[in-house]
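As a warm-up, study this chain.
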Amino acid sequence: MKSKYSSFIKLFVSIVIVSSALLIQSCSNSESENLSDQSLQSTVPQNSVFRVYDKTYNTPKGLQIWEAQLNKTIEMDSNIVRDGLKLIRYEYVRKIASTKDLETVKTELKKDNSLFIVYKDNSSHFSISENKEFAKGYSNLIDSLLPTSAGILEAIRAKGDTSLLAKAACVFKKNDIGVVNLVWEYNGKTLNTQCLVSNEKGIIYDKFLFSIRTIVSKITSVRSNSSKAPQTQPMDGDHIGKNFHIGYKTYNTYGSIVAECGVSASLLGNRYQGGKFATHFSINYYAYSLYSSDLGWNYAALIVPVNFLPTSESFVGGLQVAYGIAKGKNASIKWTGSAMIYSGDLDSTEGTYVDLYAYEMEDYNW
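Now compare it with the structure written out below.
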């Protein structure tokens, strides 16, 4: 595709590549092994919400968050049933009494590393079978989601972690974490999995629920937005801008973000003597994955400036960018100077040119 601009004038380019920090949402910042006899199910959070896939719901009165999640999953799992798997019931087994007890439970989970969700040919359909690549990192996954070692706990508490995996983790707290047995029907057979749940967080981990994913939320906007109150008259020197953004988020069954990506661009400038003057721009792109490319969760994202014309007597001024987004195993993108090149075992790709013009800019704090 040829640029809409006849020439390229380089004035002042600000290219900002920002990786947005993801704040950890752990269940607790303290650890205790001196537990009372209070049942895990005795304290029900009030006015709480829960998530299943990309949807948020109010927790019914008298239910724990994880109970509401499992009930809604049973109600909504039409996308699971079509592949022969259906959650039919669950039973609360016991609370986890200490970090030592949690280590015992984690050891049992790690032994159950043969059968996993395996997606077919980069589609949304899956089977339950061996996944050797996933199994290789399975122990590390359990340790990361349920951290008990001093090293992992210190990293979470002291400096945090920007990964999606850290955001999904849950630190031990008394009367919070418990074990629930899930009963599944799969192609006429009955399967059981051990699900770990938290009073405060909801479902922490189950080997099937963790891996069942849905593609959601294509977030897109091309807008001129202002973060300050509208003025009766525009003034010289006002910061103005025009934004473009597109992104994706992928959630698993119980609402953990397992992958996300996005690209954005901003054309920036000022008002002067009744006119709008483009002076510079910024771009941003990111792609994160919760665990493993072998689950097909990977995104790749890239955005590059193609042409930038600052406002002058000869030009209105504007920015042209090219972006690409790819989804699939080992997804990657390269810009050749004229086209995006996609590689990997891909489910999908998209990309195009986007034009932002100076006359479209409005009040904008930058």
